[in-house]
Prior knowledge:
heterodimer, A: alpha+beta, five-stranded mixed β-sheet, 2 helices, 5 strands, globular, B: alpha+beta, four-stranded mixed β-sheet, three-stranded antiparallel β-sheet, 3 helices
Amino acid sequence: MRLHVLLFATYREIVDAKEVAWTVDAGTTVGRFLDAFVAAHPRLARHRGSMMVAVNLAVADPETVLHEDDEVALLPPVSGGCA
Amino acid sequence: MIEITRRRIDANAVLESVRRDDAGAVVLFLGTVRADAAVAALDYEVYVPMAKQVLADLAERAKAKFGVLDLSIVHRIGRVPLGGDSVAVACASAHRREAFEACAWVMDEVKRIVPIWKSIPPKRARRSR
């Protein structure tokens, strides 16, 4: 099934894309998806510990099950606001 | 008012958005781009739909937590120059204590959970004359 993967900040630079289409098997979890995605983009590996994942605008944990056409955003530690 | 904008923040508009007759206190906080040797501006990148949702939820939680009457949050994105306002939080309440506390709490949460990232653009090299 198809996922729409969005990347931000540092991750955008690493993958050299704002958005990537990705295919996974039905029933795949966020954790399993990340395993495969990071394997395909090894420079993301050192960021995995601080990475947040949002599925359809909601923060998701590794056990969250993904569905067809889900929007999966990989979010680095945020830094909004002022100093 | 919950807004993410590329335009300069209209601080007065943010203030007026919360002003009301039953408020005895209105507090406005502005986060600005501070002078630094390496910084001429800051670039803000955002996951817009999620940021709007998180900001709206944050405003509702602040109202419930502090009992304030109204609360607005505006965050600017794109390039913000030195001295420019990057974020505005305005809060109206019956009394001043909760307005100050709500603003401070909201700013802490904005920095903790809203999907916005800032970076420092490279300074332009000075042209030799």
